[in-house]
# Entry
Amino acid sequence: MTGWLIIAGLGPGSDELMTPEVSAALDEASDIVGYSTYVDRLKPRLGVALHGSDNREELKRARDALALAEDGRNVVIVSSGDPGVFAMAAAVFEAIEGEPRWQKLDIRVLPGITAMLAAAAAAGAPLGHDFCAINLSDNLKPWELIERRLRLATEADLALALYNPRSKSRPQGFAKALGVLREACGTERLVTFARAVSTPEQTIVTVELGEAVPEMADMQTVVIVGSSSTRRVGNWIYTPRRAVS
Amino acid sequence: MTGWLIIAGLGPGSDELMTPEVSAALDEASDIVGYSTYVDRLKPRLGVALHGSDNREELKRARDALALAEDGRNVVIVSSGDPGVFAMAAAVFEAIEGEPRWQKLDIRVLPGITAMLAAAAAAGAPLGHDFCAINLSDNLKPWELIERRLRLATEADLALALYNPRSKSRPQGFAKALGVLREACGTERLVTFARAVSTPEQTIVTVELGEAVPEMADMQTVVIVGSSSTRRVGNWIYTPRRAVS
# Structure
């Protein structure tokens, strides 16, 4: 009996944004493992075991999933968005690093539409030129490193997609980040707050940095800060393909 | 008669990575517009007009598609990967900026799996921590700006996804980029060359920067340069979620 482990991205919310490859994997799974909110999003299917767990237990969840695959189960770990972008794939490889026998397991990573791509599409094309993706959570890195990256990324004139801008346990970080960005880019830089993208609760709001306040974001929000050339055309926001030094 | 324009991402190659939303749009289109290579990838359907054009004519292609939608046609512009990442969405908004009456058209952008996400999934999770996406083509920006961004991104210790590393008309740029990266990161940094991801021709090769040569990349390749903490575990490449200053 040979098990396997697939680490799959569900996309940002709508089933219309889940790839056929991921749908097929879910159909073949004996066990589906993930943060309860994402596991609950799936349509229940007869005979499949659902293992929902708390958001903060990523490494334990990865180890549990690997142990199930080792036992011969067909396991899918689900992430929102893309599993390789601030999600479960890195946690699984961390778990494997600590337990070399798991390296022999049949493991595949299936990409998904990550939040910044769906947010950018809903707003127009703010990531149409060079950009970066930065996780604003300081759970796993020091705040000083986040500030340093924000400064260097704006110095490089990249657009910025900011993940996990704000949570109940970290209410101050995003206010500090907005301060750093205003200092680096001035008050007129465009900022898009994209919340619950592709779900019925989707909201897309674009303001200038001078008007941005921390309360515009929560953990369901991805924030896109434009580069110096990001601008409005009609109701859209976009960054031109062309840039000068 | 009201037309519409959808700017859709086909994903990196395999139909299994195309979202249901994009498949549905292609089914409803009267006209499909795009670079011939991508248009030819689609299954022909009775009654749909296919408009393939040359790769370098992005702005003209955008204008042609907008004119068709204005004439009442249901138009899908296709891009490989995600339309908002170094692809057609920004070109469409540029065209609209020059022709304000087009702002009233019914326009939607549908996201897709961009090459770096599919490449990262095939390699493991090299983009599992903060990263950036930089287009190495100097067709629309000066080379100095590309070098500057490479230096600042490595100073910020981001992983780098490099698009359009090398073409016949720009044979020297990628060699220069590798030189800049070796100077900034040393020779042991891991570099993944992901070619034709998700197609039958897919190849994934990871080497150290000291061993990387320009000929490892072509226009079908996305190159992922790791951060200082990117490493191998078994046959996989990943960047841990945790980082220190």
Observations:
- Chain B touches chain A through 76 residues (CB under 8 Å).
- Residues 82 and 111 of chain B are 5 Å apart (CA to CA).
